[in-house]
Write a structure and sequence with these properties.
The structure is a homodimer. By secondary structure, the first copy, chain A, is of the alpha/beta class.
């Protein structure tokens, strides 16, 4: 059965002006992503679908499109709603006004905390969202055997959820070594799905061939232009990412041409609401590309059609009949200045957001089962030649450095198991945060979300960690033995229960507290949160200890 | 389940050079359709799939690619194998050497003669073909109520065959008025399929909107550039056609740019073996485009990736890991000179074609159930102002002319019901064949395949028609009361039981006989065969009489 089969009689009538459309955008300049042409016409919409593009359509509701340009709704090709620190409901409120009408989301942050209950929560939230949230099923829960996770998602779980949601693809398959060495569990999970999202930072050559030949279709982890070029040539969709912590747009922009545009997408992966408020979302990626000389056709394709096409959503990505009426009306095409957003035929405005129908996130509360700690729990010993995690601003990649630890450039870092399973506390050293005093702790610690803390001294580290016990997760800053600021994220230790505007304000306050520590990073909490992720090269710290990601094993 | 799931372990190993590939193309220049880049590398193939592209692959079988350029196998986006006048087996023999490794075929010619037995025959032939013949299911059997057909394919038939072949799309939906007026039978047929091929010559404006909104995805009937541009902007894939009779390449070439390339495909629709022998197939379309200034990237995409993508074949169209090993090795990229063809990992050579496994076409023999005719069966009466079918060389469109019939430019035309159902004989007048003497008859008469005959006098028309009774179909030329030449097509009156080389020779002989009649058309038999097709504007003749296609009714 085709999509929208029930609506076809109405669409056929509306298209021929035999009856009124539900909504018509009159006299708007359409930017056609098929050939780059502009056409001034009316867009007639019925049942949330575009019925016709042409002259003299009429409708029950009318938008005057004079002076505006219509483009297809934007599609975030890969994101984790949890990383926006707000609920799916607030996420939609945050991104829809930026023209993002579809987002592929991987609930694996919450799944690592709460297991398949996270899938249920996200599918329920997606069902009532005014934007199209395409929930993927997370294969790597836990990510690896190198950390203690809150939950496990088994092959049988995935099979069960795939049966319930046959259209769901497999979310980012981070276990690259598992594919290359043909781990039977990994292959079993892959075999359940006909669409598999990738995650293969720095992968190239024969290993990349193997990963692609196994059926992985895309990658959002390219941080170098040559890497992205190789991946495109191997048939991968390259999802150009501009998140809060990982920002690859500048580097990868030269990849995006009219030629390559079908094979390029945009995604945010992890972007917090302050960032959305201050910098925008996919709209800002489009604008920045165009400002740097990317042809508008290429930029707008990467923001919509190319992703729809690569992800096999055949009902969107063009302003054309039979397409989902996801339309962005722009005041300015080059600057991607959004005037009005239409999502599935409905104009985006406050009334569209109904909090009463949202699923309850209560199941995810009280997830921080950490004992109170003291400075004695962080028995760091200085060394003349320690393995040090070198953090790079704007990147999730880290360097594996060998340095003496007694330097003002080097800080202490610890990861604490938080599920009450084994009480692991692992210690390490980190360079790049620029802390002069105090400590920063986070219950967001990809992807197992153990508590991680970076600091200049064990006392403040303990204070910061204990603050997160109180708040049931979030971010905490401690200085001089006292809590300086806390941003509570009580849902799974990942998401706030507050509106996105409140969280943005809290992030603004937190930023001040972070500045007071002397921290020089653009997004210190997110950088901290990625310290434990043992699937991104090169050196990471989990609750089990330092991980050499290239060797995919704990450091001796 | 993903495609090729069984092969994944082997692919992953071959990709990493942990074991030998089945076949390796060494040191070949690859033309990447993703970004237009060239890369000299090896292509490693296992289980008919590309495992890896890179340096230093080894294999059990080795092709030296030095000096050659590799591009993905070509895809004919829409054709009727019957129109090649040979069996599917011979069709593959004819087109594979031209690099055509996939063809979407619509068996509706044979289905109009033999019903669903034609589906069975084609699916069986496809199952043993060395090329990938993607059989569509024909919705319009009969085409219309304006003619007598040999068979009917009902909604229930389509449902049954769709169940047997879930991947099959609906073949060209020619009944445009049926869609626009929402004929319940047409909508029922459409509702069975999630992919629907189109056929909507000259359709534009709101009617086009309605047709596309109803779910039709492509059109191969564009004959004007502006028409094709509008269709692309409405989200249709435009299948640029260059057949034997209908040749749109020259007109539509300007449509094909790097910008539009994802939305353009190539197809042949109807091309006979002599044409293939003399002019080539998709290879010649690519070469002609490039010679006229179309960027090679756009031309090669239209010949492969764009079609695979538009038709939702996610396993081909690129030379990249995980893709079906359909590869064309070219001596010359610009001239599209084919050196070697690899189809699903096997080198195309004589040994690949095994006639012994072909399905039997006997069911389709003896399909001409026509009584013997005499000149008295063609009682033409001259008129000063008759409706005359104006044939246009190189086009299937006809003009509706009003002319006096007593002119050397005007010939007689008749269509004779051939299934023994009612013995209908309809008469009309035609301009454009240029006949000076004799008559030409054909049992190929789209799409109901009644016998059609054009001539300068009733005597020769009767001789030509009677010759087809003897041969059980085909083409016949009569002059001076005698049979001048016959090309027998005993399978359904559509296909020869001879090898394609024999048919090409027969066509060459037939061409001489046709020239002797004074006929001036480039492809007179095909032009004749389209005289009865009442779904292509403007004036046509079926066994029921003259049809005004624009009004979709018999002429008063």
């Amino acid at each position: 059965m085709r999509l929208f089969a029930m609506s076809i009689p109405k669409l056929v009538d509306v298209a021929q002006s035999k009856c009124l459309s539900d909504l018509v955008v009159k006299n708007v300049r359409i930017f056609h992503l098929t050939d780059g042409a502009f056409e001034t016409a009316d867009i007639a919409i019925a049942d949330g679908i575009i019925a016709g593009v042409g002259k003299d359509y009429e409708g029950h509701e009318v938008i005057d499109g004079t002076g505006l340009t219509a483009v297809p709704g934007f599609i975030d090709a890969h994101c984790h709603v949890e990383s926006s620190m707000v609920t799916p409901f607030e996420f939609a409120r945050a991104v829809l006004p930026h023209g993002v009408t579809t987002a592929f989301c991987d609930p694996h942050e919450l799944a690592n905390v709460a297991g398949t209950a996270a899938f249920q929560y996200f599918f329920r939230a997606a069902a009532v969202s005014p934007m199209d949230l395409r929930v993927r099923l997370s294969p790597c829960v836990p990510d690896t055997h190198l950390e203690t996770s809150g939950a496990e998602v088994t092959v049988a779980d995935l099979a069960e959820w795939k049966k319930r949601h046959p259209d769901a693809g497999l979310a980012e398959l981070m276990n690259v070594p598992g594919v290359l060495c043909q781990d039977p569990q990994v292959l079993e999970k892959m075999a359940l799905f006909d669409f598999i999202d990738g995650h293969c930072p720095l992968l190239g050559g024969k290993a990349l061939n193997a990963y692609v030949a196994a059926g992985v279709r895309n990658c959002h982890e390219c941080s170098h232009l040559a890497e992205a070029q190789e991946k495109v040539r191997r048939g991968m969709q390259v999802l150009i990412r501009e998140g809060t912590a990982a920002r690859n747009l500048e580097e990868l922009m030269p990849l995006l041409t009219v030629e390559t545009s079908p094979f390029c997408s945009f995604c945010t992966d992890d972007r917090n609401p302050l960032d959305v408020q201050e910098k925008g979302h996919l709209d800002s990626m489009v604008a920045r590309c165009i400002a740097k000389g990317v042809p508008p056709l290429a930029a707008y394709r990467a923001a919509s059609w190319s992703t729809a096409n690569a992800m096999r959503l055949t009902d969107r990505g063009l302003v054309a009949p039979g397409q989902r009426a996801d339309i962005v009306l722009l005041k300015d095409l080059e600057a991607c200045q959004v005037a009005t957003v239409i999502a599935k035929g409905r104009v985006v405005k406050d009334a569209l957001f109904d909090k009463s129908v949202q699923p309850d996130g209560a199941f995810s509360r009280d997830s921080i089962k950490l004992r109170a700690v003291t400075a004695a729990d962080f028995p760091f010993v200085h060394s003349d030649n320690a393995s040090v995690i070198g953090v790079i601003d704007g990147s999730l990649l880290t360097e594996h450095l060998h340095l003496p630890t007694e330097s003002p450039e080097i800080q202490r870092v610890a990861v604490l198991e938080r599920y009450g399973k084994n009480g692991n506390i692992a210690l390490g050293w980190v360079k790049g945060f620029g802390l002069k005093r105090g400590a920063i702790a986070s219950s967001v610690g990809h992807d197992s979300h153990n508590v991680c803390v970076v600091g200049t001294n064990p006392e403040d580290m303990a204070v910061a960690v204990n603050a997160l016990r109180e708040s049931q997760g979030g971010f905490a800053v401690a200085m001089d033995g006292k809590v300086a600021d806390v941003l509570p994220l009580p849902l799974g230790g990942l998401m706030s229960d507050q509106p996105m505007e409140v969280v943005a304000d809290q992030l603004r306050t937190l930023r001040q507290a972070l500045l007071a520590t002397g921290c020089t990073l653009e997004a210190p909490t997110l950088q901290l949160a990625f310290i434990p992720l043992p699937v991104i090269p090169h050196l990471k710290l989990t609750d089990k200890g330092l991980v050499d990601v290239d060797k995919f094993q704990l450091l001796e």
